[in-house]
Specification:
By secondary structure, this protein is mostly beta strands. It has one domain: Tubby Protein, Chain A, CATH 3.20.90. It is built from 1 helix and 12 strands; from the N terminus they run E-E-E-E-E-E-E-E-E-E-E-E-H. The N and C termini lie far apart (28 Å).
Length: 150
Amino acid sequence: MLTAENVSMWRGRYQISADGSPIAVWDPSWWRTGGDLEVDGHRFTVRSNTWGTNYRMLDEAGNEVATVERAGRKRWSVQADGRTYEFRRASFWRSEQELLVDGVRAGSLRRKSMWSGAIEADLPGMPIPIQVFVVGVQIALWQAEQSSGG
């Protein structure tokens, strides 16, 4: 299980931990939707398209590692390592996303608190860097939603 804690209220920076041990830092971009990740000493860049619906995760050499399509929609997906991971919004009223396997809930990603911004992710079967990418994209979406007043 991953948890993400906001370590800088003004900057929107998050410390991401797996089972209580720090594994990554999400550092949001000031100018574009997305941010930078560092996982196990490897840096990744996350950028979105103009509308913030598609995200790409690039490694240090600029190679695409993973993509998110239809971010912010009721149903969206992640492509990485030749696999597709399907997600759906659990409810219009809650900040929770469900990971689906063959149409059945297999995991989730949820905001633990609107006030602290803490996030909890249970994404079994997904490599850690891709889990961190998914958490980073959700942070970017929730931050964009908050700044637009929606």
